[in-house]
């Protein structure tokens, strides 16, 4: 038998604590994502995405109407 003391046992976490920690981690992850999105650094501007989407929808409608 060794003379070293055993490490202290960690207390069990309750279901409430586990759930709360999960919510806090998710909230922090969402916050970081929003901050990153607000900073910009987008490779393709949003207006270009909107323009391409608009052209696709107009082309699709044109095909339906002329068929």
Please explain how this structure is put together.
With 67 residues, the chain is mainly α. It is 69% helix and 0% strand. It has 2 helices and no strands. The chain has helices spanning 15-39, 46-66. The N and C termini lie far apart (88 Å). The mean pLDDT is 88.
Instruction: Note poorly predicted spans.
Output: none
* Radius of gyration using CA atoms only: 27 Å
* SSE string: HH
Helix content estimate = 55-70%
Average pLDDT level: 88
Percentage of β-strand residues: under 5%
Gross morphology is: elongated
Main sheet specs: none
Number of contiguous helices: 2
Task: Please tally the β strands and state the result.
Answer: 0
| SSE class | mainly alpha
- The CA-CA distance between the termini, in Å, is 88 Å
Any chance you could write out the topology, listing elements then pairs?
Elements: H1 15-39, H2 46-66
Short account of what is shown:
By secondary structure, the chain is mainly α. Helices cover 69% and strands 0% of the residues.
Which features characterize this protein?
67 residues; elongated; mainly alpha; 69% helix
